[in-house]
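Problem statement: downstream parser choked on a complex file, so we are re-checking the raw output for the pyridoxal-5'-phosphate run. The parser issue turned out to be on our end (a line-ending mismatch), but while we're here, posting the original submission so the record is complete.
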Amino acid sequence: MTIENNLNTIRLSLPDGVQLVAVSKTKSNEEIMEAYRAGQRIFGENKVQELVRKWESLPKDIKWHFIGHLQSNKVRLIAPFIAMVHSVDSLKLLKTINDEAKHAGRVIPCLLQFHIASEESKFGFSPDDAAQMLSVIKLSEYENVTISGVMGMATFTDDVAVINQEFSNLNRIFQNLKEVFFRGNDNFREISMGMSDDYLYAIEKGSTMIRIGSTIFGERKPVTN
Ligand SMILES: *Cc1c(COP(=O)(O)O)cnc(C)c1O
């Protein structure tokens, strides 16, 4: 299977309104260009240095999405070009993105990442922490970010019931936040959930953005950095 074939197979399974983020972390410029030539324009990366290198050398109409844990002190490096940050998991990070976006003369769309999996290691807000943050900040003072929705990762498991329950949970979190904090705000509309092994379940539970790596590009080699 080629990257183009893989992309086309995935596209055929996507309902209208679901965007595909091609997760290109660890993949080469050549592999990314193969997807680009097949029409893919949204790519996801999770390491700042690697992303900056790729942004510098690849076509400028690529929309780069940051999908990994982002350290505040590295936001400046990606603020001039990043199209969306999926992984905002603290007020400090949101503030920093707002400041650096302002510095770069941009408005950066952001998603709030929620911890929906049973694994300990995944980053993200709890619903209470997010509600607490949103009730204390004045969104009108954050002119250089838009909060565009939520993101989450399900537990890595074969148990479909667990996956479905976690994706339903993220959808419920999204609906609650919309109701309480973003009513009538059309920017708040994205639910980023679903990866190679679980994206079909995520779509059934209302995903609007799936993030797919290995099903497009093949398995990643273990990384050492
Ligand atoms: C790596 C990664 C993906 C893609 O994973 P695959 O299983 O290769 O599709 C999606 N989302 C996040 C946050 C990732 O880090």
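For whoever reads this later: The beta strands are 19-23, 42-45, 63-66, 84-88, 108-114, 145-152, 190-192, 209-212.
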